[in-house]
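User: Please predict the structure of the protein below. I'd like the answer in structure-token form so I can feed it into my own downstream comparison script.

Assistant: Understood. Taking the following sequence of 606 residues as input:
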Amino acid sequence: MMRLLLSLLVVMASLPVMADDPADVPTRHALALYGEPALGEDFSHFPHVDPNAPVGGTLTRAATGSSFDSTNPYIVQGTPAAGLSQTYDTLLTQSPDEPFTMYGLLASGIRLDPQRHWVEFDLNPRARFHDGTPVTAEDVIFSFETLTEDGQPFYGAYYADVTDAHAVDEDTVHFDLADSESRELPLILGQMPVLPAHYWQGRDFTQPTQDALLGSGPYRIVEVSPGQRIVYERVDDYWGRDLPVNRGRHNIGRLVFDYYRDASVAMEAFKAGNLDMRIGSSARNWATGYDFPAANGGFVKRLEVPDGQPAGMQAYVMNLRRDKFQDIRLREALNLAFDFDWLNKNLFYGAYQRTHSFFANSEMAAEGLPSDAELALLDPHRDALPERVFDAPLPIDMPEEQRARLRRAHELLSEAGYTYRDDTLISPEGDPLRLEVLLHDTRFERVVQPLLRNLKRLGIQGKIRVVDVNQYLNRLRNFDFDIVVGSFPQSASPGNEQRDFWGSEYADAPQSRNLIGLENPVIDELVDRLIAADTRADLDTAARALDRVLRWGFYVIPQWHLPVTRLAFWDKFGWKEPFPEYTLDLDAWWVDPQRAAEVEARQQNR
């Protein structure tokens, strides 16, 4: 009997310590996905900011699209205005100098169960909405329930493993987490915007509105002019201005987003001094568009900031909800028809790099043959995956010469049962193969045309359809397209958003980011393994396995990326270097009064 008791004691001693009582868990100032936060509890400001930066001035930028019709960015309906995230604070905020570490913003303290079964946030008692009302735990619960029930579908995807949320007291909120091993879930709960429950009483959250909605962030809306502009003003008595995460940030007095129907018109507005900054200029503009007096005279600067984040995937996305794209041989043939080298040489001034991986520019990109660790994840699904996943190296080997590529495309189409009638490719069902590329930006037409020329050489009838932004968004929401230019951005620590990109349950959810329409149980499981990764090495392995399966599925035609962020701006701004390692933080910039006066004098005297 004594031996049995001793054995039980040994077993119990080996079990992990359960912390059912939050009082037994230490309160922390930050959470890191792996390891410890780089900045201690006593840090005064982020390293990349100047805590003594001047405050004031204006930053005017161009907004994408012809207009907006809503100031609520969290719902399915409507086209939201640019810049709205500046008006709402979140529980935590991310350090741009770390892969994935969240520091307290609305939350002054965090308690995380060692087994990650729950997380608690203590709200800063000073936190206020712009009307002076305190931010309470009830506001957090209201936000969670409203966003997951009535918000955009990705909120449901992000927070699917939250089993309960309740207020412990006025300043403490508690979330119970499913046993899903989602390591990042406590951190992404911290990314949730907190909405004012009292403001939304009697208002319909699901309907677009043009009201200046009440927030708690560093800026408030002061002008709403659909079709023209939206303007934000720095909140002078912002409750959080002296927090370590905010000191030296949010320095600019007014943020203006002017709307232009055409990017070329926006470029002319920038040259005339009506816009202060352009981000992500096209290759042609970057190479040839800055030969004008102000730029030549030193009043306009250009800057390339290294990007430490994965490049993600920008691509032509094929809609698997259309039967014609179900055959992998057609999808591979369309990939062969894309001639990146010609585009880069003739249209892009050699500026871009070809994207191969869904996690390009990172350690998560799959290369060569699968490692033993990857095979441990892939082997159980060998019967459900193409053999090339296991025995063909990455990047995918395609002929370099375009004629050879098109010959291989012809062979694949013939294998798939396609035939020709009067130089027109005929599907196995007897219909001409027609493909439409849906766009909202006329600038992209010249980029798509070379692809359509190659498709024509294959007998495929391709065309471009350009629609306005609102119609484009409506068609995306309803997945009413053959091919679109889609983007799947990635962070240094991917997680729950991968469900929204690739998960079967989101294939038919309106406005989900599963543009492809993927419904693949193998991909679902690999996403789950990525989310559950316990170590950085496990996450990298799961990402590479997922990357490998996605790439050999030929679901998209990968395009290109830049390993830098391009900025062009009138020389009135200041910033501190070195830049953050992972994310450019424009909130840490400021307007230099002396240089701003010189720029203004030059513009008035031109």
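That's the full token string. The first strand starts at residue 30 and ends at 32.
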